[in-house]
Amino acid sequence: MTQKELNERAKAAVMAYDMKAAAEVSKEAVANNADLVNLIQEGFTAGIQEVGDLYQAKKLYLPHIMSAANAMNAGVEILTPELEKAGKSAGEGLGSFVICTIEGDIHSIGKDIVAIMLKVAGFNVIDLGRDVLVKKIVEEVKKVKPKAVGTSALMTSTMVNQKTFEELLKEEGIREGVLTNVGGAPVTQQWCNEIGADVYSENASDCVEKMVAKVKG
Question: What is the Cα 158 distance to its own chain's centre?
Fold first, then answer.
């Protein structure tokens, strides 16, 4: 079974809302020492993105998105412990990275994938979940003193809370001590610059590449 075939099966499983098939692909990938990060990006993520495009085109509805997400999660859950092992063997020490979906936003798929890949890169990831109050994120920064904080916003109506977060960090006098990363479908480099965040990430791979460079740089 080639990597391409595994990726295609993973994508098809997500688009067919088939949790069992998604889990089977992941098990095969682990057994065959396949590229698990590639499987997530080119297989499971590609599937969920296509479902999202169909949803935007009003060809699918919210229950379809949820079913596709459940299928993807069934596959990714099997891959996560293997990826975490790989991250540990590759070496840790990049520091703590707090990540969440911003207040008012219940989406978590993209954020979950970023969290996994940051772990693989060697960060100690603290995932606060979704719809996290801005004040709670600031409290976590005070408590953990992480190297970085990443917030995801999947709607234009919740993007403003990324700006609020930047402002609250400044008010609390802790902005200079932490790198801030912003991402999500409507988020842009222009928005990142406007609110004073440190790094804009277009996708999971982009986030890992930029944050590793920032921390090591």
Answer: 17
More confident residue, 112 or 157: 157
CATH classification for the domain delimited by 3-90, as one of 3.30.30.10, 3.90.190.20, 3.20.20.140, 1.10.1240.10: 1.10.1240.10
What does the block give as tokens for 44?
A: 């499971």
Q: Which amino acid is at 76?
A: V
pLDDT > 50? residue 91:
no
- List the domain boundaries for the chain: 3-90, 96-216
pTM of the model: 0.73
The alpha-carbon radius of gyration of the chain (Å, integer) is 17
Give the residue-averaged pLDDT of 48-67.
84
